[in-house]
């Protein structure tokens, strides 16, 4: 089973985003894919499910599917502020492709392959 490292700056950033929301806040760590990009880790507000592994930090539940956690090994969630703005940074031992040179036919075919890989990573099998 993999592990999750969440920095204090990431925890504080989520707290700022949700404001004075009462109760438990569930943040899902998942693989996401955009228009012409490769899979990358992302965060979203969601509900937990029976297949999730859950970490608690105060009133925040960080969830990830057990299958993805097993494949991704160690995952680190951090938050940065700088001259280029603010952002979450999610790194992992799991190698994800990071380049796509435009939206050529080759890129679109690679995107289909990436989506297939994404589905395989997200599945429990």
UniProtKB/TrEMBL annotation:
Annotated InterPro entries: HesB-like_dom_sf
Domain of life: Bacteria
Protein name: Fe-S cluster assembly iron-binding protein IscA
Provenance organism: Syntrophus gentianae
């Amino acid at each position: 089973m993999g592990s999750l490292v969440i920095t204090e700056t990431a925890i504080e950033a989520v707290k700022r985003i949700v404001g004075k929301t009462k109760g438990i806040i569930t943040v899902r760590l998942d693989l996401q894919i955009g228009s012409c990009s490769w899979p990358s880790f992302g965060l979203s507000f969601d509900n937990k499910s029976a297949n999730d592994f859950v970490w608690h930090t105060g009133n925040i539940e960080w969830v990830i599917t057990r299958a993805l956690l097993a494949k991704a090994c160690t995952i680190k969630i951090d938050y940065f502020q700088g001259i280029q703005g603010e952002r979450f940074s999610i790194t992992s031992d799991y190698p994800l492709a990071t380049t796509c040179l435009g939206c050529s036919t080759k890129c679109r075919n690679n995107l289909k392959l990436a989506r297939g890989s994404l589905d395989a990573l997200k599945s429990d099998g």
